[in-house]
Amino acid sequence: QVQLVESGGGLVQAGDSLRLSCAASGRTFSIYDGWFRQAPGKEREFVAAIRRSGDNTYYADSVKGRFTISRDNAKNTVYLQMNSLKPEDTAVYHCAIDTDPPFGYGLYDYDYWGQGTQVTVSS
């Protein structure tokens, strides 16, 4: 059974930074690891993704230049470094893994999901 556990969320002020972690366990092999977020009253949206090899990364326009996704294959953990946080970044952040190519930005491209970690950015 695959399990994804996010951590690192919290309450910060605008302009601050946070680093989210997603630890994976279980018998699966991800092709891509992604982060999505869901704000109250809004649909879950793509934030960033990384190929398991680490040679390709993808970002939503809204976070490009502020967020960085990375992974540590030895620890089976994916990170999301979030800098220059804005109030509009407030959401529950979920990690997910995609076990089949090709890469996709959609929710249905991903096969396993974590429960999420809350990020709140105050102005």
List the keywords.
mainly beta; 11 strands; four-stranded antiparallel β-sheet; 123 residues
- Write down the overall geometry: globular
Instruction: Work out the helicity level.
Output: under 10%
Give the beta-strand count. Answer: 11
| Order of helix and strand elements from N to C terminus | EEEEEEEEEEE
Give the uncertain stretches in residue-range form.
Answer: none
Class from helix and strand fractions: mainly beta
- Sheet of most strands: 7 strands, mixed
Range of strand content = over 45%
DSSP summary: helix tally: 0
Could you tell me the radius of gyration in angstroms? 13 Å
Report how far the terminal alpha carbons are from each other. Answer: 40 Å
